[in-house]
Design goal:
With 550 residues, the protein is α/β, with parallel strands linked by helices. The protein is built from 19 helices and 23 strands. The radius of gyration is 26 Å and the shape is globular. The N and C termini lie far apart (77 Å). The structure holds glutamine.
Length: 550
């Protein structure tokens, strides 16, 4: 039976509990201990698939087609294992199961209650994940902050698990804040003390405290926190702010986190080797080059809405020895300006990411047009591929009213349309084309060159598809279909051969990018953007032998 680490958070939200949990996972994996991770979300939605990205951030899609919390993205990037539907549980799912059982009569006349029915359902799912994956350790992150009403059943469930399994097999890690009070010039431990007290009130004594702080904690404060919170001094970990999330596990290791976890859980571990992550961090901090890439979307006010895309650019930048500066462009500004050029001039690359709904669509299409006409590297993802096809159909193939039926159901030229199988679907939740599919790549295409292979397995999340009725026309005019899902003959990638780099895909490659192993399409896109930036600079430089007056 695997062992369990439960990570809770206190004082305030947004302390980086997901990154902290993922970093623990990374450290254990790098010491030869196999890990899986679980996110317990206390909200009542069955999954985040129906939530607005502006409220909840990105929806992370797993290979088995689950729409999950964006923390699963951090987990996959840090532990480098593919996660599945059962790596994310929500209160919505728990209640959905219990209510179905109750309606079936499974409770045999009993009163159905939070304790034990809800807590049992939570425990069963945690244990089942452990059994199904067969790993050494399950790290379960409990969403929310101690003191929230909604996370109580999860905390009660993990309290019971300590009772059921004992101290050698369960570990409680609590992430808190130790704020620096400028006027006093001091770090303050009181919020941490209160948070631990709140946790103890519900029966959980943390074994390890991770203290988020902007200054070094120092031995004296560690002693104080240890004394007041009833933990060992070595178990008070300095979780200092750092510039890159990939440095977090390195600092945790320096402060002895993996050592203490291993000794408390009585695990057998290999010697540590963090050199791969050290190299990534070194490359992120000290790049030689710089490129500017425009992300033309509409959820730009919440950067978390494009989390995996930002991370993929970090990975790709590191591999190209470049700092990728992302310019977050609100496509409605492009519509207001009635010119993509004024806003996109000076960009080395343009990306149109995934998205839903009509708002801003013409701004996205105009961004593609600008990239196509000006030889600026273009990368389209999902809706970004739809926009590329629409733009090409309208402005190169002469189908002036071409559109996607998502936005113009009556368009005379539905170059993007709903698959017949999806036409009768009415529910919004979990009804898209979701998860991993194999994409066959055309020999000699940029896609095939990037992947260095003939098949790519990538994850999907969309309803609308490239309409094969227009394939011959689009291809004859130069928009080549370079990736196809062969079983259903669906076009998954398009390219313009006669352009420095113009690639769009129906799937979401960002979910599979890793630190130290950037996604090939992001890597090549950044490479092309570097090439563009270089050639623009050359244009600006005076030709040899010509003197510039002034
Ligand atoms: N809205 C489009 C669709 O449903 C694209 C979705 C996306 O970009 N993820 O097909």
């Amino acid at each position: 039976m695997p062992k369990f680490i439960f990570v809770t958070g206190g004082v305030v939200s947004a302390l980086g509990k997901g990154i902290a949990s993922a970093s623990i996972g990374y450290l254990l994996e790098s010491r030869g201990i196999s890990v899986t991770m679980l996110k317990c979300d206390p909200y009542l939605n069955v999954d985040p698939g129906t939530m607005s990205p502006i409220q909840h951030g990105e929806v992370f899609v797993t290979d088995d087609g689950a729409e999950t919390d964006l923390d699963l993205g951090h987990y996959e990037r840090f532990i480098d294992r593919e996660l599945r539907e059962n790596n994310n549980i929500t209160t919505g799912q728990i209640y959905d199961t219990i209510i179905k059982k109750e309606r079936r009569g499974d409770y045999l006349g009993g009163t159905v209650q939070v304790v034990p029915h809800v807590t049992n359902e939570i425990k069963e799912r945690i244990i089942k994940l452990a059994q199904d994956t067969g790993v050494d350790v399950v790290i379960a992150e409990i969403g929310g902050t101690v003191g929230d009403i909604e996370s109580l059943p999860f905390l009660e469930a993990i309290r019971q698990m300590r009772l059921d399994l004992g101290t050698d097999d369960t570990l409680f890690i609590h992430l808190t804040l130790v704020p620096y009070i400028k006027t006093a010039g001091e770090l303050k431990t009181k919020p941490t003390q209160h948070s631990v007290r709140a946790l103890r009130d519900i029966g959980i004594q943390p074994d390890i405290l991770m203290c988020r702080t902007e200054r070094e904690l120092g031995l004296e404060l560690k002693q104080k926190i240890a004394l007041f919170c009833n933990v060992e001094i070595a178990a008070v970990i300095d979780a200092r702010d750092v510039d890159s999330i990939y440095e977090v596990p390195l600092r945790f290791h320096e402060d002895g986190l993996d050592g203490i976890v291993i000794s408390k859980l009585k695990l057998e571990a290999d010697a540590v080797d963090l050199s791969a992550m050290e190299t990534v961090v070194e490359r992120i901090y000290n790049p030689k080059h710089r490129v500017k890439i425009a992300v033309c979307g509409k959820y730009i006010n919440l950067k978390d809405a494009y989390k995996s895309i930002s991370e993929a650019f970090l990975h790709a930048g590191a591999e190209n020895d470049a700092r990728v500066e992302l310019a977050w462009i609100d496509v409605e500004d492009i519509e207001r300006e009635e010119s993509a050029g004024r806003i996109l001039a000076g960009m080395d690359g343009i990306l149109v990411p995934g998205g839903f709904g009509e708002r801003g669509i013409e701004g996205k299409i105009a961004s593609v047009g600008y990239a196509r006409q000006n030889g600026v590297p273009y990368f389209g993802i999902c809706l970004g591929m739809h926009c590329a096809v629409i733009e090409y159909a309208r402005n190169v193939c002469g189908l002036a009213e071409a559109h996607s039926t998502e936005f113009a159901p009556d368009t005379p030229d539905p170059v993007i349309a709903l698959l017949p199988e999806l036409q009768s679907v009415v529910n919004m939740g979990g009804t898209m084309r979701l998860g991993g599919y194999d994409c066959r790549l055309l020999a000699g295409s940029r896609a095939q060159e990037a992947y260095a292979g003939d098949v790519a397995r990538e994850r999907h999340r969309h309803r609308y598809e490239y309409n094969n009725k227009y394939r011959e026309l689009l291809e004859s005019k130069g928009l080549v279909s370079t990736g196809v899902y062969a079983k259903a003959d669906l076009v998954e990638m398009v390219e313009i051969a006669d352009h420095p780099w113009f690639v769009a895909c129906q799937f979401h490659p960002e979910f599979k990018s890793r630190p130290g192993r950037a996604h090939p399409l992001f890597r090549e896109f950044v490479h092309a953007a570097l090439g563009h930036s270089e050639s623009e600079r050359e244009k600006d430089e005076p030709a040899e032998g010509v003197r510039v007056a002034g």
